[in-house]
Design a protein that fits this description.
Layout lengths: L5 H18 L20 E8 L7 E6 L6 E3 L8 H17 L5 E9 L2 E8 L5 H14 L3 E6 L5 E5 L4 E4 L2 E4 L10 H14 L8 E5 L7 H6 L3 E6 L2 H14 L5 E5 L17 E4 L7 H9 L4 E6 L2 H13 L2 E9 L9 E8 L1
Parallel strand pairs: 5-6, 10-11, 10-13, 11-12, 13-14
Antiparallel strand pairs: 1-2, 1-4, 2-3, 4-5, 6-7, 8-9, 14-16, 15-16
Length: 350
């Protein structure tokens, strides 16, 4: 994709959104131009590693090929921030020491305000020599934190030298291991701005529900504008960090939180009656259960954020069938040089 002229590349990615919407009977002409982001701004990488068989088997470290278990070995990656690129070679070296031939792991690397955060995922719990090796590695390359999780155990700390935190609209929020975070800080800022634009006509101190709120990517900017925000997510540790951050920011009275699995137990239409707006940013599977209740509600304004044009288009069609009007769709190129697209869309009732 890097070989395409920028205009052709951005048009190609916009067309992914247009095609998904037209498959649901929604006119693609409402889709705005693709907003570009810098290629070297990705602060989070989900990598996979495999030590090849044999006494001196090398370590293959990189991203999975599309729709495949094959790992594309990586020496450098132009989409990653320098701090992530710089740790790839030493990470490969330590993995060569602690992985048995024929075994592998997944690695989630995140650049935070205080350094890199690393979460290792394996089938089996780590052995003492492995945790000791990664504790030493954290000191060697100055990682903020290393955690480990396996199919048999939850997340366990290996080394925490500084509590990792991320910045949302000038507010620092502690990052729990493995918590969801937008891959690009530049794209996150663009999307937060688009959400606020779609909520620009809200009255002062309006009530807003932020569903699938995570750590507060949109909760905090919305609250900073004066709205009262109810943040709902299934990850209670992230919501606890969000609540603590709102206190430090000076507007804790404007934010409430609720731990709730919205896919299994969405806010019902009756629960939504006092909200002036709802924002939702679901996983790739979309927000079918949430949308069914919104379609039955009287909420005046809805803002959808999505990383999957196909499930967004499905959910948009359900909202339109329920009496909402789609006012704008803005695609954002968060995942540079891939076929993945982020978008922000606004709906109004009537």
């Amino acid at each position: 994709m890097q070989h395409l002229a920028e205009e052709d590349y951005l048009d190609w990615k916009r067309d992914i959104v247009v095609a998904a919407m037209e498959r649901q009977g929604i006119a693609g002409s409402i889709v705005g131009p693709m907003i570009a982001t810098p290629p070297g701004d990705r602060r989070r990488a989900e990598l996979a590693a495999l030590r090849l068989r044999g006494k001196h088997g090398a370590v293959v470290l990189g991203f999975h090929a599309r729709a495949s278990n094959r790992i594309v070995d990586m020496a450098e990656c132009v989409i990653l921030r320098p701090a992530l690129q710089n740790v790839i070679a030493p990470l490969r070296d330590v993995l060569a020491k602690i992985l048995e031939p024929g075994t592998g792991c997944d690695l989630l690397l995140t650049e935070t305000l205080v350094g890199l955060d690393l979460l290792i995922t394996t089938k089996m719990p780590p052995r003492p020599k492995q945790t000791l090796a990664f504790a030493a590695f954290a000191e060697e390359v100055d990682l903020a934190r290393v955690s480990w999780t396996s199919e048999r155990t939850g997340i366990e700390p290996v080394a925490q030298r500084r509590p990792p935190a991320v910045n949302f609209d000038g507010v620092a929020v502690v990052l729990p291991p493995g918590a969801f975070l937008q891959a690009s800080a530049a794209a996150e800022k663009i999307m937060a701005g688009l959400v606020l634009e779609n909520l620009a006509t809200l009255p002062p101190r309006a009530r807003v529900a932020d569903l699938f709120a995570g750590l507060g990517t949109f909760t905090l900017p919305i609250a900073a504008e004066g709205a009262r925000v109810h943040a709902v997510d299934s990850a209670g540790d992230g919501l606890n960090g969000l609540l603590a951050a709102t206190g430090a920011a000076g507007f804790s009275g404007r934010v409430t939180v609720e731990t709730r699995d919205l896919s299994e137990r969405p806010l019902m239409a009756a629960e939504l009656k006092d909200y002036a707006a709802v924002v939702f940013d679901p996983p790739r599977a979309g927000a079918a259960a949430v949308v069914r209740q919104l379609a039955e509600s009287k909420v005046p304004s809805v803002v959808a954020v999505s990383c999957n044009p196909a499930t967004f288009a499905r959910d948009a069609a359900a909202l339109i069938a329920g009496g909402y009007r789609l006012t704008r769709v803005t695609p954002v190129d968060q995942f540079v040089y891939t076929g993945h697209v982020e978008l922000v869309a606004g709906f109004v009732r009537g």
